[in-house]
Amino acid sequence: MSKGEVQESKWRKVITEMQSSGKAQRSWCKEQGINYHTMRNWYTKLNQVTAKVKENAEKSTEWLEVSGGSEVEEAAAINPIIQVQVGCFTINVTSNFEKNTFYDICKTLVNLC
To answer: Per-residue confidence of the chain (113 residues) as pLDDT tens digits?
Structure first.
């Protein structure tokens, strides 16, 4: 993980802990020795990232029919795999994939790219 990813992960945990405490943000930060303004900056940044992921996920998906020669069709019948590229990542999807898991993976990868 890059330094930025480590920081983001750390602040996601901090914000989750703060929210689950049920306390006011300022008082929780003071108790934990965390600078309130730094926490608010991360809170805003992470909310913007989450909103962007949701927005991208809600955009309509267009499907393209793919066909190939008999060799491709025979190979697909034996071991059907579709390669999906999300940013710099490639996902191999088999015919028995879990729709929700695939969706969650794509959301995460969009966030990383």
So the answer is: 788 888 988 998 999 999 999 999 999 999 999 999 999 999 888 888 777 767 766 665 566 665 556 665 665 566 667 778 777 777 878 777 778 888 888 878 777 76
Q: Which string of DSSP letters, residue by residue, matches 65-87?
A: -----HHHHHHHHHS-EEEEEET
Q: Does the global pTM surpass 0.90?
A: no
Tokens encoding 24? 């006011």
Q: For the chain, first and last CA: distance in Å?
A: 13
Separation between Cα atoms, residue 5 and residue 8, nearest integer Å: 5
Please state, in angstroms and rounded to a whole number, the distance separating the CA atoms of residues 40 and 27: 13
38 contacts: CB under 8 Å, gap ≥ 6: none
Report residue 49 CA to chain centroid gap.
Answer: 9
